[in-house]
Write a structure and sequence with these properties.
Chain lengths: 657, 222
Amino acid sequence: MSTAVAIHEEAHVPQPKQISKPGGLLRRTNFLTALISGVVTAAVFWFVTDKITSAVAGAGATNSMALPSGLNINITMMYIGWVIGFMAGIGAFAGPIRWFLGHDLTHADAEYMAGKDMGREKFWKFTTDHKVVGIQYLVVTLVLFGFGGLLAMLIRTELGATWTEVFNPNFYNSIIGTHGIVMIIAMIIVISGPIGNFIVPIMCGARDMAFPRLNALSIWLLIAAIPPLVSNLLMGGIRDGWTVYQPLADQAPIGMIGYQICIITFAFSTGIASVNLITTIVRMRAAGMTWSRTPILVYGILGSSIMGLVWFPMYQYSQILALSDRTLLTSFFVPSSGGSVWLYENLFWLLGHPEVYVIVIPATAGLLEYLPVFVRKPLFSYKLAVSGIFGVVGLSAVVWVHHMYMTGWAPQSNYPFMMSTEMISIPFSFLVLVILGTMWRGKPWKRLPMMAVYAVVWNKVIGGITGVYLSDTPVDQYMHGSMFVVAHFHYMLMGAGLFGAMGVISYFFPKMIGRYLDELWGSIGFWTAFAGFQITFMSMFVAGLQGMPRRVLQFDSLFNISNWISTIGAYIIGIGMLIFLYAIIDSWRNGIPAPDNPWGGKTLENFTSTPVPHENFPVLPVVTSGPYDFGTPDPYELADDAIMQKTEGAEKVSARS
Amino acid sequence: MSDTKATEAGRTLSPTTGESVEVTGSRDKLGVWMIIVSCTTGTIALLVSYAYLWSLNVNGAWAPTPGSANWAPVWPFWVIFTAMLIATLIMWNGYRSLREGKVGAMKSAALLSSLLLLGAFIGQIFQIARFPFGPADGAYASATLWLAIANGIWLFLAVFLTAAIFNRTRAGRVSVENPNHARLVAMFMTYLCVAAFLGCVFTTVMQESPNTNSPPFGTFSQ
């Protein structure tokens, strides 16, 4: 909790008794202790569960609470043990126990936990500083994209090799499901994680997030959630796609439990992160930062967090109940004993569709954030952008049924939901209009982040228009379950979400890392991936229009050509992404050092030095103007008095070496 | 989360962050509200599941398996809810007393509330163990069991929180100058009462399914 230094130096607040060295138990915990503790606890949970279930079965107990023994419950308890042990090993429970006992953190404890003067070791610990958490999120995101991307290459290899089967059909299905959910998780966190944690508090003028310990908890819960998911490939896999519809999931191999535990844990992580982001944004904005002076990225993160907070529990409960059906033999989704598969589909899609906006809104808001910087014009219709974001947030609650047109659930509801789904394109198009309006007659500064704007507008228009088609019930009857749908959602999630995220990350990279992202290699990687993306998914649209179903290993030779082209495109994406990754890694180590205000922006993160100091600001800023008050069209005029959001005490704050 | 140790110019400051406790308290309050919003969605998911399966009566398998199982008695739900409600009222009363300067009343309230909730938690476990059905005895059994399990988890958390408030009041962390954490726990307990009340209403009112002639939905068995 790093909000202390500046105030303490002035106030000299008396401290509680320091019981041990600052940090206490957390001095001894790190990623290694977490791994060891997780593995040991998982083994203990397995052993104890096995003994109990064997004993119950041996006693021939038939009362109501005699749990069914077998592999399902053992595996479930093993994973639960892993998560609990891992979190205990990283030190996540130290805070609640101290709070329970009435031993609050001293200022020295808080500084230790924030990783002050700790060096790189802080990245491997339960560190509370939002900047450390942001970097941890960035690395985890890159790892997830690497893994999910590798699986995508395997999928396309199978589909491109039309003359032979590369993989066993079950393993192929597992790759599909795992690729889907890994990429969904990565896309959900790609902006809200790194940028939301690192940049948003600074952009708001705060010293840290509202709840720094919850912040650390959210990233370590996410890390704990990944091994169960990945391990599914060794235990029969997820063969039912990322949606894991019932009752297929109920009948699936034990690998499904890894998926369920992962989602349950990830939902806790997301909920905690959402609470933290919302509270930080609502309560901790700098003095003078009224809602009309709040940067648009902050609105995007706020909208995304609201959707995550409200809808994620639905998805979480769908998996809790599904896991209960497997382990306790309840029957929420088992029709033979009174359950309903439609219930699962409703619970799932109540998050499943808003999740698209959880992904796309922050990426779009990120583009809107830096677009004025690169065209040196005010954001076109700031209020339209804000209403677009919250229009999407509001309507996202009433669109989920369009995923269920063909399931037979409540056919009378198809047309109302068709209307609501088409309506959501209106606030969404507000955001595109704001992009176009801001660029109109501007003189864009042609740097990598700006290139992402062009790419995203293109992708979003294609993804959006095909989405309007798919939301029409009659069209959906034909297109449903085809590769057309796959191409459409990749245009939205990857085309708008991921390419947008690449732009946003390249924009904030200098502030986060202290060095510019290599423009040459970054651009080569970006445009290579973009070209590959068009080849892959345009061809997939064709395959879909020809009638090729999704999630199939073997298909008619009619679809060979489009699949070959798609596979070639996918390899080009892979090459582009590797080049972009190289640019990130190389720039991280050897990039050109960035100044305090790397792009001449006006928002508050540009007021503090680069790298950002421990407390973010020597003196908390007071905002007296809007974030996009650009009066000059010349992007190269970087005089401080012309470009910065005015603050009191700016001389102190912007002092830099 | 922070505590109170110093005052400067009439303001009580948190030793951890150095900010006024009004500032940290306001932040904590919004955070708890957000948690309640999230928990409400989860509760709605459970209640919707109950009501949905009740109304649909898929394959006529909502009711407990005749002969081997039965409906759960309703009164234990209400007894547990009543204990929760009394504990919550005691907690709010303790908080109000603390605001009036009575630290001892807060300690007593937290202790009493904690003990009541512990009793309710034990009662919840006992109720689950004594259900006249097993988890596999139809959709009603599943939905009722999970309402009870969820309530049990909340009760465990509530025992932890109220016991912590007792400890913290003793240690001077919850005080007249900084009663925020007591208020936050009371707020959360109020939400738990609402959730438990809805659970009681559902399990009381919705037993026999109104859909007595449900069509066969198939079994989807392999």
